[in-house]
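If you are new to this repository, start here. Below is one unmodified record pulled from the training split, so you can see the exact layout before writing a loader.
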Amino acid sequence: MDNIYKTALNDFSYYLALTEIQIFKDRQRWSSEDKLTAWFQSSPEKAVFGRLLYVGTVVNQPYTLTQVANELNISRQTISNYLRETVDAGWVVAEQKGKTLYYKASDELCKSIVGYADYSSDMFQMSDVHEAEHLLGLLKKRQKDLRFNVLKSDYNSLHGEKDEPQKKAS
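And here is the target side for that same chain:
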């Protein structure tokens, strides 16, 4: 079982690497064609900043500057700069509620993230990475089941108990 698992893991790693290489190339092309993509893909911090504001927008819970900084463990000054740049560009919307400013993703940013999710789904479905991941997941689950049954069997034999017959799923 270990050899099968290792082979499946190697296959998954290979197909995942190929898929990620293609995603990288596509992101480079998009960044040269679109200012929004270029800004949000220019660093991992900017990318996750956009994702967080998108999540807040989807669940109708916009974030304050402090909440974004705390959630992402990025300095308030950096987040302040990101907010200023993205609000000025129209990619983030600022809303005043009382004395507090809240921020959410603009329709354009939301549309871009949904478009990327659709693209990602296609990339994983059309490549061999999806099938390799599925096989690996099944093997991991089966490996856990086998270890538990072997341990249970060893315990029962040590204590003179008979193994219970396996119940069939209905």
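Two things worth knowing about this chain: The helical segments are 2-33, 35-40, 44-58, 65-72, 76-89, 107-126, 129-158. Residues 126 and 148 are 35 Å apart (CA to CA).
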